[in-house]
Amino acid sequence: MSIFSSFHSKIVRFFNDRKARTFCGTHRDLVYYPKDSVFTYETITIGDRVFINKRAYLSGEISIGDDVLIGPDVFITSGDHGFTEIGKPINRQGRMKPRKVTICDDAWIGAKACILAGVTIGKGAVIGAGSVVTKDVPPYSVCVGNPCRKVKDRYSEAERIEHEKLLQTKRELCNSDGTTVGK
Ligand SMILES: CC(C)(COP(=O)(O)OP(=O)(O)OC[C@H]1O[C@@H](n2cnc3c(N)ncnc32)[C@H](O)[C@@H]1OP(=O)(O)O)[C@@H](O)C(=O)NCCC(=O)NCCS
To answer: Which domains does the chain have, with CATH numbers?
Structure first.
């Protein structure tokens, strides 16, 4: 490689690294800490009013709904390395096909939780701090631990119905840009 082409590729890399990267989805009123976190931006879809605390590591095909709260130091991945081929070290087996992670509306992911490939966190679910989530989590459940298991429901059935009714009413009181009607 000539001195010129080496210099040229360094310049291209310098500017690519500084390109403003952004998430997919509407992500209105998103709060996140890009300098303290790692995101594969273009593969992550985010809804409205989502909060992602510091030192997030979100990598791969991830879909996050509206009103989701993500605590500090959370790790979410849609990927895995292959490791079953005989006679090949793992670092030469390549990656497995990504399996999308979905976090539905109104979920809360506690600090230091780890959410692995293919998992769906149901609407309104709570994931305890430090949990390792390997399987789908039912809507409005409270799940904790490693491996993450349901310990209780967030609401009784009647409370859940009331909660959803109230959220719906509030949504109807919003303008299309998310501001309250009359403002
Ligand atoms: C999941 C959580 C919300 C549950 O709170 P809670 O309703 O008061 O839970 P409880 O105390 O009734 O716990 C129920 C059971 O789960 C256990 N448990 C609760 N949180 C746990 C956790 N993170 N990991 C492992 N077990 C947990 C409790 O020890 C209890 O077990 P037991 O029934 O054997 O005694 C809370 O424990 C938690 O982890 N909060 C996250 C805090 C956080 O990350 N904040 C960051 C700011 S975004």
So the answer is: 3-155 (2.160.10.10)
132 CB less than 6 Å from ligand 1? no
Tokens of 8: 């040229």
Confidence band for 68, pLDDT divided at 50, 70 and 90: very high
Grouping H, G, I as helix, E, B as strand and the rest as coil, residue 7 is helix
Say what the pTM is.
0.88
| Active-site annotation holds for 81 | yes
**Model pLDDT, residue 88:** 97
Alpha carbon of 132 to ligand 1 centroid (Å): 13
